[in-house]
# Entry
Amino acid sequence: MPSRATFDAEVVHNFRDIGASIASGYPVDGMIVIPCSVKTLGAIASGVSENLLVRAADVTLKERRRLVLCVRETPLHLGHLWAMVTATEIGAIIAPPMPAFYSNPESLDDVVDHIVARALSLIGVHVPAAPPWQGTPASATRTGDQERPGDADPATVLGRPAW
# Structure
């Protein structure tokens, strides 16, 4: 990808300013929380608006706008997964910031740029430097009669038994 774009914030709010403009119906297309801690995920999932970040996320959901949560913790226990399910049920999109190596990144910056571009695309922001995945060249030339990856005998995939 080309060099990163830089942006200057037009407005910076205090984290504790629960009465800021973005805390009540401020017109935005969507919101991305990246990285999103499990604490923030839990607060959003439960609707406990303890700070401006969580309140803005709550407003985004109640206004039926897109909210993308890039949950960063690993490994996860069942409580974390329940919070992700709850957040999804109330309208959030869970998009862990996992590196995609199919794009053949050459640097850590490439990995970060790819994750950010994917998150932006989830709220409808097109990033010209990050076109959507078009598939592999081989997938574009397959015909219906050729073997597909899912057609292989599961017992022989990767030379291991399917369990």
Remarks:
- The helical segments are 38-46, 52-62, 78-89, 108-122, 137-141.
- The first strand starts at residue 30 and ends at 36.
